[in-house]
Amino acid sequence: MTDAQRDVLSAAARTMVGDVQRGDVEAIRANTIPAVAADFSGIADAIASLKPLVQQAAITVENLYALDASSDSASGGRTDFYCGTPVVVLNFNDLPPGSYALAIIHATGVPKPQQISLILSETADHRWMLGGLFNKPMMEAGHGGLWYWSSARKYAQRNMNWDAWFYYRIASNSLDPVEFLSSPNLEKLQHEQDGVHPDNLPGAKPLMIVAQGSVYQLTRIDTTDTFGALDLEVHYIPDAAQAAQLRDPPTARKQVTEVMTALLSQHPELHDAFNGMWVNADGASATLFSLELPMPKDLSGMQTPGTSASSIAQ
Questions:
Q1: pLDDT digits over 289-299, tens only?
Q2: CB within 10 Å: which end of the chain, N or C, has fewer?
Q3: CB 180 within 8 A of CB 173
Q4: pLDDT tens digits, 124-157
Q5: Are 185 and 146 a contacting pair, CB within 8 Å?
Q6: pTM, to two decimals
Q7: Class of 3-137 in CATH
Q8: Which backbone phi and psi does 49 adopt, to 5 degrees?
Q9: 184, burial (CB in 10 Å: exposed 0-12, middle 13-18, buried 19+)
Q10: Positive or negative torsion for Cα 171, 15, 99, 67
């Protein structure tokens, strides 16, 4: 890419991100290729979410990649681009013949810095129009992806695989701007993450834990920084008797505390990596009860009489 080409692409990307900062949906739609503008709701929603986060941000065009698919077949299939040194690989499916670019922009100097990626498509009269918009937070709970990667390695070295797994996942989400981009570093990160994947994480099957003689079905465990610090977010589905207990606030608090205690008894390493735990009892269509609990200071007294830390394989 020549300096002149880079300047034109950079200016086009800055103009589009400026429209995002102003929340000017119609200006962006007018500068979007017809195939994408015809179904614009996803981009419009992204702009609405991004505007308050980046309105006062400093904008830096971090990376630009020129993608020449002008000689490709119109029959579709997969198109791979190999860019730079070390090589960054970009993968697209069913990309029409033409000239494209990827612009990766950092919006910083705000409480929640964002990484914004734009797919640009060159028109016949050599204008650059929007073909796709993606965004990800650059930081979680005040730290960037490299910090989480380094911390994940330390947890992995101590065989604290639950901590390592969640930290690797945050690192991957922060450092990988778009799903269709890969690089040697990102592949290395993914390899390290795969190496510490806990066997009993809930996913296709729930994690069953026993607390105070009751069996709880944990369906999802995730991370959140909604309230600033990094918390663990736990979801479980109560049975009929457990759901009935949730109607009484003191009993509901006791129940979710027992769920937290049982999970920490089984995986005490979680105490070191997270500020607290959100425990959510989920109903068929809504959350029945939700409570944020700080991590206990003393794990030695965490397991109360009658609380078992065992899990039941499904």
A1: 999 999 987 65
A2: C
A3: no
A4: 999 999 999 999 999 999 999 999 999 999 999 9
A5: no
A6: 0.88
A7: alpha beta
A8: -75, -35
A9: exposed
A10: negative
